[in-house]
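call fold target=Protein groES
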Amino acid sequence: MSKRLIPLLDRVLVEKIVAPTKSVGGILLPETAVSKARNINEGKVLAVGPGRRAGNTAELIPMGVKVGDKVLLPDYGGTEVKLSSKDGAKETFLYTDSEILGIVSDQ
């Protein structure tokens, strides 16, 4: 059974991007190359909450990221969330909008 999580307030559900252990051609990568790639903390935004409230008002402050964004994550932090899917368990974490360091652009 597949679970779905809808974040509340200013929380963001992120799937961490795991460094590949094989090249595109099928060659196993050396441990040094894999460990360097693991130091890059990037993830893909899977779900986003509506935003946080501005003081005691009902007004919501919009989120800085959207679903599908590739984001830079801090070394520590976030709450690990166990979600299963057709592809197996993914490494997913729940962060607040302010914990995300930036949006990674491929341009």
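return ok
The mean pLDDT is 80. Helices lie at 31-38.
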